[in-house]
Structures are given as structure tokens and as C-alpha cells.
Amino acid sequence: MSGASQILPGTGRGTMQGMVEGAVRERNASGGPPSTTFGGPPPRAGEDLRGSLTANGSLADFIWFRTGGPAEWLVRPADVDDLSDLLKTLDPSTPVLPVGVGSNLIVRDGGVPGVVVRLPKAMAKVSVEDGRVRAGAGAMGITVASAARDAGIAGLEFLRGIPGTVGGAVRMNAGAYGRDVSDILVEATVVTREGLVEVWPAEKLGFTYRHSDLPAGAVVVEAVFSGTPGEPALIGAEMDRIAAEREASQPLRSRTGGSTFKNPEGHKAWALIDAAGCRGLTRGDAQVSEKHCNFLLNLGSASSAEIEALGEEVRDRVKAHSGVTLEWEIQRVGEYLPSRLREGSGEGGLDTGISHQPLPRPLPQAGGEQ
Fold first, then answer.
1. What was the pLDDT predicted at 248?
2. In a 3-state reduction of DSSP, which class is residue 101?
3. Distance CA 314, CA 283 (A)
4. How far apart are CA 81 and CA 85, in angstroms?
5. 103 burial class (0-12, 13-18, 19+ CB within 10 angstroms)?
6. I need a labelling partner for 361 at 20 to 30 A (CA). Which of 176, 185, 232, 311 fits?
7. In three state form, how does the secondary structure of 248-273 look?
8. d(Cα 35, Cα 28) in Å, to the nearest integer?
9. Neighbouring residues of 151: CB distance < 8 A, sequence distance ≥ 6
């Protein structure tokens, strides 16, 4: 038993609570990685959930860095109504974090308190209607770009270069190759933290560079994109060009989190990092990629603390060299676990710049991940 409890329709609270608490006890007695302080009574909102509820649910199994602590409660709702019902009845003080494939995320080693929502495959469908592409938030960017290509809709090719889900792309206004989600989004369907299902026009999202005004705990569940008429062959050729360029310039086959820092106005983050002498810099098993130095890598057994500390060291070196302060693009969520930062890791055991106190339980707004 892995600690997962499938909550079926009509399951009573007593049965559900017993299953989940049993899962927690088994997890903590299994001799596996030490648990956090998580594992208390399950959310009351879970008693009527038609999807699944997992105590101490592993995030490192799918987060691209393949490291970090568990979710206190990992929820996979059956559909939009299931998610809405969950959020309506969930204690308002319980933090909610939507996570997609974790391609732009550092999950700290202490894990993520509250509820982490991961949408199921049923919420990843893509269709074309009246020259627009309607995509479930769990769909990958390449799937959306391919559907647009097949329908002769140009302007969405850049999504081929976005390795995350539609939900995350909308939340952080993801972009590549000169275009952003804000250029193509018509509207997004959102389940608010209060459980209301609302359709937001693009203007309401308040897009800026790698940012939207979606509040913490809100979950994007669908998006509608528009483009312009185009020839499928030409659209496909542009997608192939993007794929080849990414393969040549980025460490796609490594444990990474995508672009680490935002491009400061008038600069390229990678060039600032390179000029500061950070290419190939290591801390434990965390490394600044030699292929593209705005990417951090887990070479095998890096902790999230080491990856984040390496990023902070890069920021310090860039600031000292050029006077520019880099802003994180990767989202960092959860609680810090000091024991996962090995003494003396990196060059000369440099100070990490990270507090060794546990983070407060409320999560920051997760700007990119869904």
C-alpha cells in the first residue's frame, strides 16, 4: 500500500477517515523517507470526493527535478464539479496549490502543507470550435499546438516550446520565441478558492511578463485560444524549428525545472549568469547547466535545498558582477527542511542565503505551476 486512498461515491466519513489514517500510519512505519508533521485528520471536504485523496502524496514522482517533500494531501478530482464541491467545503484556512507536471517548480524538502490539486487526464481534452482551440487545463502545450496545426490555426506554434500544462501556462503567462499566452488567450474557466466556477476573459487576468492576477488557491480548468488562418504544413514546419532549437540549446533530457530566472528588462538572464562565471557551478548534486546556464540541474541526488541554494548563489554572483538582481521564474513552494542541505556542499561551503527556520504553513501564491 502506497498511502493512497481512493474515495468512492457514497463513502462515509468514518470509512474514509479510517482508510486515510491507516495509510498515514503505514507510511510512517514503512522505513521510507521520514514524514513531515503532516498526516493529521483528512480534510472534511474529502468525504464526498469522487476522485482520489492521498495522504503524504509524493510530488517527487512527477516533479521534473525529481526531488522535494510530499503533499500533505494530494487530490485528483474526477471533474470540474468534483473540484468545485471540494473547494466549497474545504476549510478556508487550508492552503490549496494546483500543480501540473511540475516543469517549473521547486518543491521544498519539507513538503507542501494543505491540499495539492492535480488534474486528471479527463481534464486534458483539446478540441477545435469555430476556429478556436478549447483545451482542458491538464493538456500539454504540445498537444494544443498540434491541434491548432491540424486545424490550420497559426499563432500557437510557440506552445510547442512550453513543456508544462495549459493551466500553468495561463497562470504564469508562459511564453517563448517572442509570444506569450496573453497574445492568444480568449478566456479561461477558473474554479475559485471558494469553489465558484467562473469564466474569466483574458483582460481580467491582468497579464504582465510571466505573471497573472489569479489569486492563490484558484485553479484554471479550461482555456480558449485564438489564432489566425494558416497552412498546416507551414505551421508544422515552425513547430519543428522550435523543437530543434530547444533540443540544441536546452538540457531537455536532464532533471531540471526549465528557465530559472526571468529575463531582466534589457538583458538575457543566461548571459548575465554566464558573465558572472556561474556556468557549471555546483552545490552538492545541483548544477548550473553548462549547455544553458539559466537552467539548474539535479545530477542525481540533489535536495531541493541544494538546488534553491545554488540558485541564490547565482543571484548573489550576478548582483555582485553586474548590479542586476535576478528574479526567480521557477516557483518555490512548501516548507524548508534544513537537514537536506549538506554541510560543505558547493564551493567552499558558501552560505546558502536561505533561512534554516521552517517556512510558515500558508503557501505563497504559486505563480506558474498548475
1. 87
2. coil
3. 11
4. 6
5. buried
6. 311
7. HHCCCCCEEEEECECCCCCCCHHHHH
8. 6
9. 128, 131, 133
- Digit-coded pLDDT (tens) for 296-335: 999 999 999 999 999 999 999 999 999 999 999 999 999 9
Active-site positions read 210, 259, 329
Residue 58: name the closest of 138, 124, 112 by CA. 112
Closest CA to 116 of 129, 128, 107, 125: 107
**Count, residues in the chain:** 370
Q: Which residues have a Cβ under 8 Å from the Cβ of 55 and sit 6 or more positions away?
A: 3, 4, 5, 20, 21, 23, 24, 27, 38, 39, 42, 72, 73
CA distance 105 to 113: 16
Tell me how far apart the alpha carbons of residues 15 and 29 are, in angstroms, rounded to a whole number: 21
CA distance 85 to 191: 10
- 3-state secondary structure (DSSP) of residue 243: helix
Q: Which helix (H) or strand (E) holds 225?
A: strand 219-226
